[in-house]
Backbone:
């Protein structure tokens, strides 16, 4: 006879105790049996095949098949290669860093038991698991759970329990069990969880009641959802498959007032609310809806109006709500008070999501003095390396004269807090601009002058020999040499021969290269439109190549003016040198100032293409998608 022990789970039908063994769980009261197979407990009343999110049921089945055959790290990219480019982009967003960059809004120091309704193929689970004692991940579709399980196994994460739950009367846990419950992108998973037939708002109310029952009195619920009255939804500003994703069923999408009311009635009266931009799927920035009054000035009234709508409690594209029974602190609250301000008051003004989370904070000390900080919190080892590098580059820039150093953020502090690396610098005053016009054009003239000045002051001349060629140029080919050779016959050798022929024996200046000079990284004074600062030096190189910053700056200008992708601009404009007369004048001015021969423009255009592929595109699986390869490698090479 198989030995049975009392389980931590409760029966989803009657909430009675459950006994379990290696193959099944059984309710002690009603006798209901729940299977345990391949590490997944099935609490579902019926099998569910999800098809209302980004992935169709057929695509989920295809993903499971690839992951079963090849594992997660190999199977997931193979699955992506067979999707359309539009679907590929959506899935990349779904599993991207934006889906977990919000975690610093939580108190990461006291997470023991965490429940996650995972709609990200395990991205949220994988990110939070290191901070928790045990994670319980729920999804209605067993096929998705199998993929998540394989992903976690390859990452050697063993503190996660996988549960299949759909059409249940209760969540299979006792009262006050969890410190944190995460319900991310609620409308994707909500229709498959509760009992039929319930209207969406009644289904949400049921789930919130269950969450409140299982949440510890000091626990927090993380809840994110699309806004039914979101600015982009009302204006119908979506294209391609994103349109179908955002508008698949208006009745399943909620308003902030409706959600706040349901949470309040469930007893979760303390609520922190953040506006999400540009969408919940492609989450890049969070703004507290009460912090708009302290936001920076803008150059145009329409920018002010747009920001006011997007960051309001009515027209934001989506919302994140942190709800609890009592007031609680987040990681950022503790960090800001203990590391930055002591007893001073500090308010989070902006929260930018990425592999490095960037937080802009506004503080007031006891004497009333105000200051602004930029806090960088890298969430990956690679991001930490970039942050360290950026700090070192900025320290070098601060040694230059005032025309350069005054426009560079001042590093203040770096270290580790609660096992999380951090980097703090001053916040430069200024705003970015993204609309064509006289200010837009003047910005580019001023930015070009700044780069010419910077490169002239940091230039050191070298003659290209074998050692310098290998160090500077061949490094760009290493990361995709095999891919290039598979895609284009003798592609790597051809590029090597071309660059060596054009550059060997030439004298060139090496400069302090920004590496990602574009509109978003140029801050303007909102009163005078003068350049106040250049930010984001993560890709900078102390002994970098000339011309590449100019190429990228002009490409970013064309992206705005012509609404074209960077890969098209590289293929059609930069590599064939099809520049406008004004752009030719820019290159002439730059090359004369830096002492670069005109004949070297063509090989440096090729190097700009290689730099873009190697430095700016960091998703490895993206570089294997057939459409991406065609646009970014085959067409430019030809």
Residues:
């Amino acid at each position: 006879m198989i030995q049975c022990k009392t389980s931590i789970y409760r029966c989803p039908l009657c909430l009675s105790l459950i006994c379990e063994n290696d193959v099944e769980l059984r309710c002690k009261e009603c006798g209901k049996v729940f299977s345990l197979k391949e590490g997944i407990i099935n609490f579902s009343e019926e099998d569910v095949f999800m098809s209302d999110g980004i992935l169709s049921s057929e695509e989920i089945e295809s993903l499971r098949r690839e992951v079963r055959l090849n594992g997660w790290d190999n199977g997931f990219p193979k699955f992506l290669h067979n999707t359309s480019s539009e679907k590929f982009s959506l899935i990349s967003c779904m599993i991207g860093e934006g889906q977990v960059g919000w975690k610093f809004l939580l108190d990461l120091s006291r997470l023991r038991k965490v429940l996650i309704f995972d709609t990200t193929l395990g991205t949220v689970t994988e990110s939070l698991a290191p901070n928790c004692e045990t994670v319980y991940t729920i999804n209605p579709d067993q096929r998705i759970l199998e993929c998540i399980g394989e992903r976690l196994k390859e990452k050697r994460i063993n503190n996660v329990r996988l549960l299949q739950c759909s059409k249940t009367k209760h969540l299979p846990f006792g009262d006050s069990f969890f410190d944190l419950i995460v319900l991310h992108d609620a409308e994707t998973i909500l229709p498959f969880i509760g009992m039929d037939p319930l209207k969406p708002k009644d289904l949400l109310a049921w789930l919130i009641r269950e969450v409140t029952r299982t949440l510890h009195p000091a626990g927090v619920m993380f809840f994110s959802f699309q806004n039914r009255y979101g600015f982009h939804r009302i204006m119908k500003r979506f294209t391609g498959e994103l349109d179908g994703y955002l508008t698949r069923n208006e009745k399943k999408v909620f308003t902030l007032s409706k959600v706040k009311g349901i949470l309040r009635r469930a007893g979760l009266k303390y609520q922190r609310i953040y506006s999400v931009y540009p969408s919940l799927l492609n989450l890049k920035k969070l703004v507290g809806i009460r912090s708009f009054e302290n936001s920076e000035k803008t150059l145009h009234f329409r920018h002010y109006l747009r920001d006011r709508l997007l960051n309001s409690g009515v027209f934001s594209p989506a919302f994140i709500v942190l709800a609890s029974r009592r007031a609680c602190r987040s990681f950022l609250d503790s960090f800001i008070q203990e590391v930055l301000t002591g007893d001073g008051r500090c308010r989070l003004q902006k929260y930018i999501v990425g592999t490095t989370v960037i937080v802009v904070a506004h503080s007031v000390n006891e004497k009333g003095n105000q200051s602004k900080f930029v806090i960088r919190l890298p969430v990956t080892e690679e991001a930490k390396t970039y942050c360290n590098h950026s700090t070192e580059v900025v320290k070098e820039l601060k040694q230059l004269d005032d025309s350069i150093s005054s426009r560079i953020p001042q590093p203040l502090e770096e270290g580790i807090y609660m096992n999380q690396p951090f980097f703090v610098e001053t916040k430069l005053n200024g705003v970015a601009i993204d609309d064509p016009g006289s200010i837009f054009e003047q910005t580019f003239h001023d930015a070009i002058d700044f780069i010419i000045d910077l490169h002239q002051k940091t230039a050191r001349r070298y003659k290209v020999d074998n050692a310098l060629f290998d160090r500077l140029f061949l490094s760009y080919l290493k990361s995709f040499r095999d891919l290039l050779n598979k895609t284009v016959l003798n592609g790597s050798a051809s590029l090597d021969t071309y660059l060596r022929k054009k550059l060997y024996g030439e004298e060139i200046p090496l400069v302090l290269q920004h590496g990602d000079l574009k509109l978003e990284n140029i801050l303007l004074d909102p009163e005078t439109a003068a350049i106040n600062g250049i930010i984001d030096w993560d890709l900078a190189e102390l002994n970098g190549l000339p011309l590449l910053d100019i190429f990228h700056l002009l490409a970013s200008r064309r992206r705005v003016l012509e609404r074209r992708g960077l890969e098209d601009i590289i293929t059609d404009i930069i590599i064939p040198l099809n520049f406008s007369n004004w752009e030719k004048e820019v290159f002439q001015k730059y090359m004369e100032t830096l002492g670069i021969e005109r004949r070297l423009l063509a090989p440096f255009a090729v190097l700009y293409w290689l730099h873009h592929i190697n430095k700016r595109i960091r998703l490895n699986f993206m570089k294997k998608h057939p459409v991406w390869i065609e646009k970014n490698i085959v067409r430019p090479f030809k």
The radius of gyration is 27 Å. The longest helix spans residues 57-81. Confidence is low (pLDDT under 50) at residues 235-249, 291-296.
